[in-house]
């Protein structure tokens, strides 16, 4: 019988106001082995190449989350800075650092500016205060191209952290460097106490800029997470939000912005009643919509405003997916309560270890896309504050509001099931979705595919997942790119897995793309510094890429390629010294730009119908060469305008068959419409009636 063992953690007690990084709520509980089966690949990955090789920015000895937790730390300017018409189109990045390894060294908030040619123009600290600063965020004014940066810092006599803000007057100088003296945007604890009634500190500020209800102005939003624990010591992170309106003249006379603050009663109640941690990030649309999206426990949540953040509606929907407890080879249950030996109730749910993400309105502001990760847990673990972190899988979440109800579509990003878009999360022991365990381990237990979506692995899931995972999106209209890191090779190397001898200290950068507003996604491309691997990139040779952040916006190169800007750290010793892993050797911050092939999803403009009247079956044989039979079931009265259409992975139509009455199958001979044999690879086949897709399957041609 499979037994679960507690992970033994060495807990280093830190003063929240000395080392102000977030701490987890649930504790990791792991299996006594690392059973793993090979991943099954159903989608194509995009082609990726460097178009700007990594450029040195500055060395830092604070090697933890330099770009902050949420939002993007690097922002693309508009091409022209108004009202004076100066050329812009550059990049601002903000990050915290300490300049020496000395214990007395002060962490500071810096910025860097790159011009439109990708050349580093300047980098320096934003303020002249010699105080502890950090965990900043940035957004860009869409008119002037001026950046607004917020971070937390000790600036008052009470020696608590306040959220301060500054902006650079690029539009006056046609260049960077004229920063306003920082001013307080969230005064702790005074601003929050009015709403919560508690002496709270709202840290890690995030900023976003959108339209204002006042003509000629823009509205900037700032929010901070509560860093003060509850009576039970739980850190639930309710938030304090502020907004302020400004125009260009306000910036030119360097007015401090006057913020209107508020908190959400729902989140406050959860904080002080010790319910669960609130994970959330802000998305701001160009039509007055503002939303916070995230999850609480296994419940997806949204705070939604349609009037520029002045009134809000709270929405939620259950994100729990109940699973069958898989059976070992001897028919015993894989997941059992270690005390009673009784088979456990298990489920998949949005993991609390995936809280470092950002959010964007997209698809004409009809939905919000974020990236996170699903975990698998038992009810007993969940109730007692534990989770099973060996099962942690990146997902895309598409939030929308339909008829006043919150809808969240969960998409497999990595690892994927046979149908990543079926609305059900992948089951790691049943990737082909045939309701059978794919493989058993040598000792007869259920095998599952593992995932380590983090740059860091030191044998501690809590460090790797809660502290070091980082899921970020970059967007431009219907094009979206997801960026995260993967340490599966490091993980398997740590268990002396054959074939992974060269992976010690070599994390990967993972990049997946969508060309249809985040509805369907590619298999990720991987970039690493391991010369023995097929995904080795010489531009990363000798590096340990860590804390990889994309810019907020993709730039269009041509009709099928996007330019992705990246900010990352080359850690000089593997592991975060700040998190008690690795040596105090610091690392170099870098900027780079990539050309990304925007994977064209098959039939991205199709209308899909959930149909019980028409069904496709898996082709046979599969894989095939040279032909295969595609079988289907039609129970509609008429089969007029019924087709089987075959696509390649780029969405190009390969072959089309018209279906007639009483027909139940076709034979695809492996040729296209011009009778030319297709190449080896993955193909999709669709059943369409009256131009509506009833069902989709995948098949593989192997020569």
Write the layout of secondary structure elements.
Layout: E1 4-6, E2 27-31, E3 48-60, E4 74-76, E5 80-81, E6 86-87, E7 91-97, E8 108-114, E9 120-125, E10 133-140, E11 147-154, E12 161-167, H1 170-173, E13 183-186, H2 190-196, E14 202-211, E15 218-226, E16 239-246, H3 248-252, E17 260-263, H4 265-272, E18 278-284, E19 290-296, E20 299-305, E21 313-318, E22 321-323, E23 346-350, E24 359-362, E25 367-378, H5 379-383, E26 386-402, E27 405-412, H6 461-467, E28 472-476, E29 479-486, H7 488-494, E30 508-514, E31 525-527, E32 545-550, E33 555-558, E34 561-571, E35 587-597, E36 607-608, E37 614-616, E38 628-634, E39 642-648, E40 653-659, E41 665-668, E42 681-689, E43 692-701
Account of the protein in words:
The relative contact order is 0.12. The protein has 3 domains: 346 residues, no CATH class; 196 residues, no CATH class; 95 residues, Sandwich (Immunoglobulin-like), CATH 2.60.40.3580. The chain has 703 residues and is mainly beta. The N terminus is likely disordered. Strand 24 and strand 25 form a beta hairpin. Strands 1, 2, 22, 23, 24, 25, 26 and 27 form an 8-stranded mixed beta sheet that branches. Strands 3, 32, 33, 34 and 35 form a 5-stranded antiparallel beta sheet that branches. The chain has 7 helices and 43 strands. The protein is globular, with a radius of gyration of 26 Å.
């Amino acid at each position: 019988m499979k037994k679960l063992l507690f992970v033994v953690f060495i807990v280093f007690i830190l003063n929240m106001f000395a080392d102000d990084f977030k701490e987890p709520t649930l504790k990791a509980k792991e299996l006594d082995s690392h059973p793993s089966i090979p991943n099954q690949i159903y989608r194509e990955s995009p082609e990726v190449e460097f178009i700007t090789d990594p450029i040195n920015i500055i060395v830092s000895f604070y090697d933890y989350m330099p770009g902050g937790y949420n939002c993007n730390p690097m922002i693309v300017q508009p091409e022209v800075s108004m009202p004076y018409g100066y050329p812009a189109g550059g990049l601002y990045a903000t990050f915290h650092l300490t300049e020496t390894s000395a214990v007395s060294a002060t962490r500071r908030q810096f910025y860097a500016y790159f011009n439109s040619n990708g050349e580093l123009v300047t980098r320096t600290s934003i303020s002249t205060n010699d105080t502890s600063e950090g965990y900043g965020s940035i957004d860009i004014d869409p008119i002037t191209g001026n950046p607004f940066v917020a971070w937390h810092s000790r600036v008052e006599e009470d020696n608590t952290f306040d959220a301060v803000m500054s902006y650079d007057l690029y539009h006056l100088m046609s260049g960077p460097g004229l920063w306003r003296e920082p001013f307080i945007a969230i005064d702790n604890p005074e601003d929050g106490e009015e709403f919560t009634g508690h002496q709270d500190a709202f840290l890690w500020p995030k900023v976003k800029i959108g339209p204002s209800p006042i003509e000629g102005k823009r509205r900037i939003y700032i929010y901070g997470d509560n860093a003060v624990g509850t009576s039970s010591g739980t850190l639930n992170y309710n938030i304090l939000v502020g907004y302020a309106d400004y125009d260009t003249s306000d910036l030119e006379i360097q007015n401090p912005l006057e913020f209107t603050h508020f908190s959400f009663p729902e989140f406050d109640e959860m904080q002080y009643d010790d319910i669960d941690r609130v994970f959330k990030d802000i998305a701001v649309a160009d039509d007055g919509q503002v939303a916070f999206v995230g999850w609480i426990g296994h419940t997806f949540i949204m705070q939604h405003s349609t009037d520029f953040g002045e009134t809000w509606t709270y929405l939620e929907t259950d994100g729990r997916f109940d699973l069958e407890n898989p059976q070992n080879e001897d028919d015993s249950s894989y997941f059992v309560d270690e005390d009673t030996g009784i088979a456990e109730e298990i489920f998949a749910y949005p993991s609390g270890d995936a809280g470092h993400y950002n959010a964007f309105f997209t698809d004409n502001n009809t939905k919000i896309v974020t990236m996170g990760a699903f975990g698998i847990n038992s009810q007993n673990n969940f109730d007692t504050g534990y989770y099973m972190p060996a099962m942690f899988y990146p997902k895309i979440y598409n939030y929308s509001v339909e008829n006043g109800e919150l809808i969240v579509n969960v998409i497999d990003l990595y690892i994927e099931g046979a149908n990543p878009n079926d609305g059900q999360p992948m089951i790691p022991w049943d990737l082909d979705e045939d309701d059978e365990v794919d493989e058993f381990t040598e000792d007869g237990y259920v095998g599952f595919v593992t995932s380590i979506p983090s740059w860091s692995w030191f044998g501690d899931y809590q460090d790797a997942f809660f502290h070091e995972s980082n899921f970020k999106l970059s967007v431009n209209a219907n094009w979206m790119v997801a960026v995260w890191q993967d340490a599966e090779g490091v993980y398997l190397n740590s268990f002396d897995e054959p074939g992974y001898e060269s992976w010690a200290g070599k994390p990967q950068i993972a990049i997946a793309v969508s060309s249809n507003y985040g509805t369907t996604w590619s298999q990720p491309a991987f970039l690493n510094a391991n010369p023995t691997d097929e995904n080795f990139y010489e531009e990363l040779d000798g590096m340990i890429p860590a804390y990889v952040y994309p810019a907020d916006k993709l730039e269009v190169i041509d009709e099928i390629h996007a330019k992705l800007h990246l900010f990352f750290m080359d850690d000089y010793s593997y592991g975060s010294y700040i998190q008690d892993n690795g040596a105090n050797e610091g690392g170099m911050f870098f900027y780079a730009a990539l050309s990304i092939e925007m994977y064209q999803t098959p039939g991205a403009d199709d209308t899909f119908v959930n149909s019980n009247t028409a069904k496709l079956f898996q082709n046979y044989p599969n894989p095939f060469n040279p032909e295969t039979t595609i079988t289907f079931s039609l129970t509609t009265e008429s089969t007029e305008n019924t087709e089987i259409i075959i696509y390649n992975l780029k969405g190009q139509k390969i072959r089309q068959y018209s279906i007639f009455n009483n027909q139940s199958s076709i034979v695809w001979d492996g040729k296209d419409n011009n009778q030319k044999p297709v190449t080896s690879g993955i193909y999709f086949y669709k059943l369409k009636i009256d131009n509506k897709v009833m069902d989709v399957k995948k098949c593989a041609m192997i020569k």
